[in-house]
Amino acid sequence: AHVITGLCQDTKDQSCVEVCPVDCIHPAQSLDGDEAFEATPQLYIDPDVCIDCGACVPECPVGAIFMEEDLAPEDEKYIEINAAFYRK
Ligand code: SF4
Ligand code: F3S
């Protein structure tokens, strides 16, 4: 799956949300409401729904999204951080 790293934090641009064909990026203002969006430090990709189309990667203005396999070692923790959001 693709993974959103901590670079998303403080930006939360949401351009990724608009292009995702399977709506697997949350919590987004348009999909989940203002309250959920404002409460989150960053957005997360649901690894069980992401189809690895890659459409979100070039849309992010801060380059926060990577293929799981392409993450820098210090960003590998975000695989679990993204997945954990969908387990609660
Ligand atoms: Fe959505 Fe495609 Fe990005 Fe996965 S890679 S989060 S399916 S836009
Ligand atoms: Fe975050 Fe980039 Fe999407 S800043 S919300 S991953 S477009």
What would you note in describing this structure?
With 88 residues, the protein is an alpha+beta fold. It has a single domain (2-85), classed as Alpha-Beta Plaits (2-Layer Sandwich). It contains 4 helices and 4 strands. The strands form 2 sheets. It has a two-stranded antiparallel sheet. The chain has a two-stranded antiparallel sheet with strand order 2-3. The structure holds iron/sulfur cluster and FE3-S4 cluster. FE3-S4 cluster is lined by residues 4, 8, 11-16, 43, 59-60, 62, 64-65.
Q: What radius of gyration results from the CA coordinates?
A: 12 Å
Provide the domain count. Answer: 1
CA(first)-CA(last) distance: 19 Å
**What fold name goes in the CATH topology slot?**
Alpha-Beta Plaits
- The largest sheet has its strands arranged as 1-4
Helical content (DSSP H or I, runs of 4+)? 25-40%
Would you summarize the structure shown here?
The chain is of the alpha+beta class and about 90 residues long.
Keywords:
alpha+beta; two-stranded antiparallel ribbon; 4 strands; globular; binds iron/sulfur cluster; binds FE3-S4 cluster
Topology:
Layout: E1 2-4, H1 15-19, E2 25-26, H2 29-32, H3 34-39, E3 44-45, E4 65-67, H4 77-85
Antiparallel strand pairs: 1-4, 2-3
The structure holds iron/sulfur cluster and FE3-S4 cluster.
